[in-house]
Amino acid sequence: MDKGLLQFGLTAFVTLLVVVDPFSVVPIFVTLTQGERAARRRPILTRSVVIAFGVALFFLLAGRAVLSYLGVTLHAFAISGGILLFATALPMLFGQRAGLQAPEHEEQSAAGEDISIFPLAIPLLSGPGAIASILLLTTQAGSDSRRLAALAIAIATVYLIALLVLYVGEKLMARIGESKVHIVTRVMGIVLAALAVQFVLNGITGYYKSLLAP
Fold first, then answer.
1. Whole-angstrom distance, CA of residue 127 vs CA of residue 49
2. pTM for the full predicted model
3. Range 3-212: architecture per CATH
4. So where are the chain's domains?
5. 3-state class of 113 per DSSP?
């Protein structure tokens, strides 16, 4: 396999896994489905992951068209996307995750609605950070069909992992405890911050190279 293709696929997988961060969604999922029978939890879980995966695929397929329509260059989006991902990483470094710590009354009101759509699918599993990451990686892949295929595989793998993690969510929480989930979130925040800085550096480098090109 081409080394560049493998590196791109691994970068895409790590970036999306860190941004989606299914481990930090586990406490929210367990809380929202508390008191539900297992037969009721499974359809909610499956539906939420399928919806989130569908949203991710939409932006994979339509992302470049959206950027082209808006007149946004790859370098500009690399810089802005990196800044957004860094902003996403900051609360994770403090053991949180932006948008996840909903007030108690909001969680209770959502329990009477279809929680598989909101808040599980959107914005927990497929929020602004995930969408920005997919758009950024799509623009990096360009018209290379192999890279786009690698990105699609990375997306599918990440949401498969999310499905498995959330499926054993209650047992996972009982075994490792919420405090260790926060430790994992902090570690993922460090990784995401480093990736975000690298995206910004790549965008700046690419921009100046385009200016120097004849």
1. 12
2. 0.74
3. Up-down Bundle (1.20)
4. 3-212
5. coil
Q: Which two tokens stand for residue 196?
A: 């975000």
Query: Residue 102: what pLDDT?
Result: 42
The token pair at 83 is 């800044």
Scored b (16 or more CB within 10 A) or e, 20-58 reads bbbbbbbbbbbebbeeeeeeebeebbebbbebbbebbee
Confidence band, pLDDT 50/70/90 cuts, at residue 43? very high
Torsion-angle region of residue 110: left (phi > 0), alpha (psi -120 to 50) or beta? alpha
The tokens for 17 are: 């896994």
Residue type, 14: V
CA distance 119 to 3: 38
Task: Write down how long the chain is.
Answer: 214
